[in-house]
Specification:
Number of strands: 2
Distance between the termini: 31 Å
Number of helices: 8
Largest sheet: 2 strands, antiparallel
Structural class: mainly alpha
Order of helices and strands: HHHHHHHHEE
Shape: globular
Helix content: 55-70%
Strand content: 5-15%
Length: 179
Amino acid sequence: GYDPMVYRLFCLCSHYRKVLVFSWDALDNAATAYEKLVSRIAVLLSDCSVIPEKIDASDAEEAGTLRAEFAAAMDNDLNTSLAVTALYDVVKSGCSSASKLRLLADFDSVLSLDLLKAAERLLADRNGVNGDDILAKIEARAEAKKLKNYAEADRIRAELLEKGIILEDTKEGTKFRRI
């Protein structure tokens, strides 16, 4: 009954050269930590409309320090437990929400904890819209567009917009975010 990302976080909090000591309590603690981190990221996502491509110029110095901290942890014999600590340092930093999200996205691309996706799902669920439902509607919209049924595609987009979900068509496919 545990999210695989919780188990991944549990494993990342221990160095790969050391024996991983498993207990249900430790896994429960990892689940609580993951949920809290995702909740904090969801707050950042609700502050920002989209994750920026670059760090705000006003946050460049602090962001550089945070990046160096993360890189040093990974360069120190893949010390993933310190790298996870760097995630928390980003959340607590004085950077803007947008810069924090950019840093978290970059760090998560290494750690693969799906933090931003989990935060988006959490926001959607809080809004009464299930993340799986959104993905199903996005697929239905893509199919409608493929069949050149643009009226149906527009109807699906409008339906999601009423529920506070904005669709963004990108080169990588359709992405969604909460208003």
